């Protein structure tokens, strides 16, 4: 789901950036930045133990996370399925920190971007009924949908569900709140009318929450039902997911896990329903898993076509024009339809992770082994590591695999003579914070990252070229290299993008993940007078709900506008919540997106518009309006 205003997203298997902003929550699952939590007691509602070794290992690992004195986690809930048998379901910790209420298997958690499987299912059901086709441009269903780039008319539902639409990223306005705020999807569509695409539809895949939000509008247009109502009637009810719902209003019943921050308990509302708004339990999610394993059938009744389930589990990345990280195998709704750790064991698995401002989740389905897992809990634990470890343990315990795969190395190989990197030096932009690459006289590579609070470059370290073709630093388990993606796009325009690639070993350590973390930017003509006069100004957000998480928790930190002396012609705007992006001037009153990065570090990009109001200037970023301080 989105990330922070402040949460984590579900990056498909992504490492958490050094500091996540709200913009990127619903996707990249990692340690939450807002929750101050206390440990609690566990509760056991386990059934018969088909996998005693796996269950014992999981119980120990989860209890360690609950009891961690450095960062205790309030509650974690887990369920595992073999065939039609939920052989383990258990909740640990407390659902309410002040009251020390024990979490149970009926306690609901906000599951973040795991929710993306439901708009994918909804779209598949609409296709089954002849109301849409996945490859028809969505303007045929939404004639009011428009954007500033004419290519918007080529966006299909398949693009929306596979992160390849080219929509800017995440509408951050009222994304996470402490009271329900209606109208998020309509607000997102209105916002998109005032912005350009960040890439051509189908050109690349970059995590995009707004694509799933637009499915809400398609469901409404084609059925007359709200998305939440349609999912309840056509998915949740048939699957008997009685402890699952979208929090469109303050709930009057049900057991919930409550965030506890700054000495106060809250209830979190995720108003982006399709992209990350479902509240559920691992037990309910095992019903969903049974439907996936049954090819669309649950409890003897067909919910969705077998072809639809197969389409969701089909690799959607094969036709991408720009894809420097081929291990990212996007499905429809799924982050990966070839989960890397399972792939290392020779087993095909589907994975979806999710994060909100306060929660982190992982959902695995292993079709041939008829195995599934859901784990969810307050942020602060490594959900991917736990999920990979449990699923691989179960596969070994039942004999599906003879042994666990070998873990990949995080130790630098021998030094080697490196290629010349003078042309790779310079500034690399992204959706997080600019990076600087410098070719040192001794042949090493110096990497720096721009630090917003200090407004200066922070040294990441000097990296030496090694025999595996990557640059390593003795104290960093990650390694780096450069790659160039070039070709001709569908409009006949030649392109060449140089990316700084980062290789990490996430989760339980069985597979590498490579991801482009920045795109090299060339200097532009000096900023004109209109933009020079804006440099150094600060702006405060004015149109979020007073219950918005960043307003309540972070205090509505001002954002500032500046530039980098090392990269003439660009405008830099942000704060610790927005993160720090480089923008290209499009006119005296507008700046646009400067990068085109697959994966996750080009995920939440924006355009900025300036206008004069009666009492002063306003700055509009997405649908968020700021006034000058």
Low-confidence stretches: 1-42
What Rg is obtained from the alpha carbons, in whole angstroms?
Answer: 23 Å
The helix-and-strand class reads alpha+beta
User: Distance between the terminal alpha carbons, to the nearest Å?
Assistant: 31 Å
Biggest β-sheet: strands ordered side by side in the sheet = 18-19-20-21-22-23-24-25
Report the sheet with the most strands, covering strand number, pairing sense and barrel closure. 8 strands, antiparallel, barrel
The count of strands amounts to: 33
**Strand content range:** 25-35%
The percent of residues in helical segments reads 10-25%
Taken from the alpha-carbon principal axes, the silhouette is globular
Helix tally equals 13
Mean pLDDT across all amino acids: 92
Question: What do you see in this structure?
Answer:
- The protein is of the alpha+beta class and 629 residues long.
- Among the domains are: 422-520; 529-628.
- It contains 13 helices and 33 strands.
- The chain has an eight-stranded antiparallel β-barrel. It has an eight-stranded antiparallel beta barrel with strand order 26-27-28-29-30-31-32-33.
- Strand 2 and strand 3 form a beta hairpin.
- Helix 1 packs antiparallel against helix 11 and helix 4 crosses helix 5.
Secondary structure blueprint with pairings:
Blueprint: E1 42-44, H1 52-67, E2 75-82, E3 85-96, E4 101-102, E5 107-110, H2 117-128, H3 157-161, E6 176-177, H4 184-192, H5 209-223, H6 227-236, E7 245-246, E8 255-256, E9 260-261, E10 264-265, E11 269-270, H7 273-276, E12 278-280, H8 282-293, E13 297-298, E14 301-302, H9 306-312, H10 340-344, E15 350-355, E16 359-366, E17 371-378, H11 383-397, E18 426-429, E19 435-439, E20 445-451, E21 456-465, E22 471-473, E23 476-488, E24 494-504, E25 513-520, H12 529-532, E26 538-541, H13 549-554, E27 559-564, E28 567-575, E29 579-587, E30 590-593, E31 608-612, E32 617-621, E33 624-628
Parallel strand pairs: 5-8
Antiparallel strand pairs: 1-3, 2-3, 2-17, 3-4, 5-12, 6-11, 7-12, 9-10, 13-14, 15-16, 16-17, 18-19, 18-25, 19-20, 20-21, 21-22, 22-23, 23-24, 24-25, 26-27, 26-33, 27-28, 28-29, 29-30, 30-31, 31-32, 32-33
Helix pairs in contact: 1-11, 2-5, 2-6, 4-5
């Amino acid at each position: 789901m989105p990330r922070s205003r402040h949460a984590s997203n579900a990056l498909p298997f992504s490492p958490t950036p050094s500091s996540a902003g709200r913009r990127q929550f619903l996707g990249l699952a990692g340690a939450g930045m807002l929750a101050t939590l206390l440990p609690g007691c566990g509760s056991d509602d386990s059934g018969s133990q088909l996998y005693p070794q796996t269950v014992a290992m999981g119980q120990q690992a989860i209890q360690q996370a609950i009891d961690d004195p450095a960062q205790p986690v309030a509650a974690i809930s887990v369920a595992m399925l073999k065939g039609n048998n939920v052989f383990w379901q258990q909740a640990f910790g407390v659902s309410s920190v002040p009251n020390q209420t024990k979490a149970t298997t009926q306690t609901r958690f906000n599951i973040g971007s795991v929710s993306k499987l439901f708009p994918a299912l909804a779209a598949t059901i609409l296709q089954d009924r002849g109301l849409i086709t996945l490859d028809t441009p969505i303007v045929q269903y939404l004639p009011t949908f428009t954007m500033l780039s004419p290519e918007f008319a080529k966006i299909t539902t398949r693009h929306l569900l596979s992160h390849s639409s080219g929509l800017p990223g995440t509408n951050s306005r009222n994304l996470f709140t402490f009271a329900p705020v209606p109208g998020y999807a309509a607000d997102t569509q209105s916002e998109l009318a005032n912005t350009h695409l960040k890439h051509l539809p189908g050109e690349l895949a970059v995590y995009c929450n707004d694509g799933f939000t637009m499915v809400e509008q398609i469901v409404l247009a084609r059925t007359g039902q709200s998305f939440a109502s349609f999912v309840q009637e056509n998915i949740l009810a048939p699957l008997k997911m009685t402890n699952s719902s979208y929090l469109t209003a303050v709930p009057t019943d049900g057991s919930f896990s409550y965030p506890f921050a700054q000495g106060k308990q809250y209830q979190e509302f995720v108003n982006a329903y399709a992209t990350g708004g479902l509240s559920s339990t691992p037990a309910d999610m095992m019903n969903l898993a049974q439907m996936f394993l049954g090819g669309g059938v649950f409890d003897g009744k067909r919910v969705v076509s077998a072809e639809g389930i197969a389409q969701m589990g089909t690799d959607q990345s094969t036709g991408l024009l720009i894809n420097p990280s081929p291990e990212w195998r996007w499905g429809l709704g799924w982050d990966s339809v070839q989960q890397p750790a399972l792939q290392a064991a020779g087993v095909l698995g589907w994975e979806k992770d999710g994060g909100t401002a306060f929660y982190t989740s992982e959902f695995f389905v292993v079709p041939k082994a008829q195995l599934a897992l859901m784990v969810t809990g307050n942020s602060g634990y490594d959900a991917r590591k736990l999920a990979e470890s449990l699923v691989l343990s179960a596969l070994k315990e039942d004999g599906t695999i003879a042994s666990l795969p070998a873990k990949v190395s995080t130790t630098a190989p021998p030094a080697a003579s490196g290629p010349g990197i003078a042309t790779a030096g310079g500034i690399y932009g992204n959706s997080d914070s600019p990076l600087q690459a410098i070719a040192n006289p001794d042949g090493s590579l110096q990497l720096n990252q721009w630090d917003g609070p200090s407004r200066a470059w922070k040294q990441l370290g000097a990296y030496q070229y090694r025999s595996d073709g990557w640059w390593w630093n003795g104290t960093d388990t990650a390694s780096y290299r450069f790659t160039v993606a070039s070709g001709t796009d569908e409009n006949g325009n030649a392109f060449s993008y140089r990316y700084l690639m980062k290789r990490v070993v996430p989760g339980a350590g069985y597979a590498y993940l490579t991801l482009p973390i920045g795109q090299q930017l060339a200097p532009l003509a000096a900023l004109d007078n209109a933009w020079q006069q804006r440099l150094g100004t600060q702006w405060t957000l004015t149109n979020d709900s007073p219950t918005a998480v960043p307003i309540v928790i972070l205090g509505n930190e001002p954002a500032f506008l500046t530039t980098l002396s090392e990269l003439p012609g660009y405008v830099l705007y942000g704060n610790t919540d927005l993160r720090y992006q480089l923008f290209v001037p499009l006119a005296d009153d507008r700046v646009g997106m400067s990068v085109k990065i697959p994966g996750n570090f080009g995920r939440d990009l924006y355009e900025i518009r300036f206008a004069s109001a009666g009492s002063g200037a306003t700055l509009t970023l997405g649908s968020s309006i700021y006034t000058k301080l």
